[in-house]
Inverse folding.
DNA sequence: TAAATTGATTGTATAATACAATTACATACT
DNA sequence: AGTATGTAATTGTATTATACAATCAATTTA
């Protein structure tokens, strides 16, 4: 196995994470943080879900998702649909505002990434996407 | 330009960052967090440096690096070398313990990544490393 | 030598997370 | 039916990484 490649990945991942961590904390393009964004996206793509399901999918603690969901509800980006079979449970659905905010935020992110990668070839961009996806899937 | 590839990168980056953020906060393989690790590594590879230089290289606030350096000094992983020309300044060098800890930690990280990527081809690993590096460089 | 600048630290705030305790409801067991 | 156990969600508390502002001490400049 090619140790050099692994070392390179190991280092560059550390750098990437640290870099983007600080960017997200200071800058904050729109009104959404990364986690909020992923929640809205998930709901838009796969439909309403409760905090437990979301927490499992994201591999986060339920309490973490609960707070994020509460914040999103408070901003009127999500609303609750009570579970008819279980008085404790509910699921979360996008409001119209949430849908709009999601779309705006996604556009901003996309724009930023497009700028960052403007000198890349199409081939490189495609491969980078594929490999990132594959990497994320290795975690599951 | 291939919008689909960009969208994929955009999404997978968000996922990657969130995932690794939570891993580093809960798990913590060894005694080092990511930033501490990058500092030690930088010093090992490029020699002693003061907090200002490190902060610039890492694009972090000086105060952040100052605290990290203080923590590493406290653990006896780094020691200060006073600047002979400027009574305020100093640079940081690895202690023997720091060198050892760095090497152990790096091994652990490498091991973990090796496991994660064990099903990948050499070619894929190599490309992923190269593209991550290129991506990180786009930030500069 | 007084004023401005600079390297570093410290105070304070924020954000994302986890774990533990709690609340309120649901299910299962005699 | 009633108690015990389990479960969805929230809330309290702690930690970690970060930034920005204030400060301290030394240096440089006018």
């Amino acid at each position: 196995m090619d140790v050099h490649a692994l070392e390179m990945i190991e280092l560059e991942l550390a750098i990437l994470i640290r870099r983007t961590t600080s960017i997200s904390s200071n800058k904050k393009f729109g009104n959404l943080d990364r986690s909020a964004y992923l929640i809205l996206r998930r709901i838009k793509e796969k439909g309403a879900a409760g905090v437990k399901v979301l927490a499992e999918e994201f591999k986060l603690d339920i309490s973490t998702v609960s707070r994020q969901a509460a914040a999103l509800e408070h901003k009127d980006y999500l609303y609750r649909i009570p579970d008819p079979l279980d008085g404790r449970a509910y699921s979360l659905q996008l409001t119209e505002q949430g849908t709009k905010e999601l779309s705006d935020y996604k556009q901003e992110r996309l724009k930023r990434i497009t700028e960052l990668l403007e000198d890349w070839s199409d081939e490189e961009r495609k491969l980078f996407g594929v490999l990132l996806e594959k990497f994320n899937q290795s975690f599951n």
Summary: Residues 18, 21-22, 25-26, 50-52, 62-63, 66-67, 69-70, 83, 86, 88-90 of chain B lie near DNA strand C (CB under 10 Å from a C1'). Chain B has two domains: 1-30, 31-138. The radius of gyration of chain B is 18 Å.
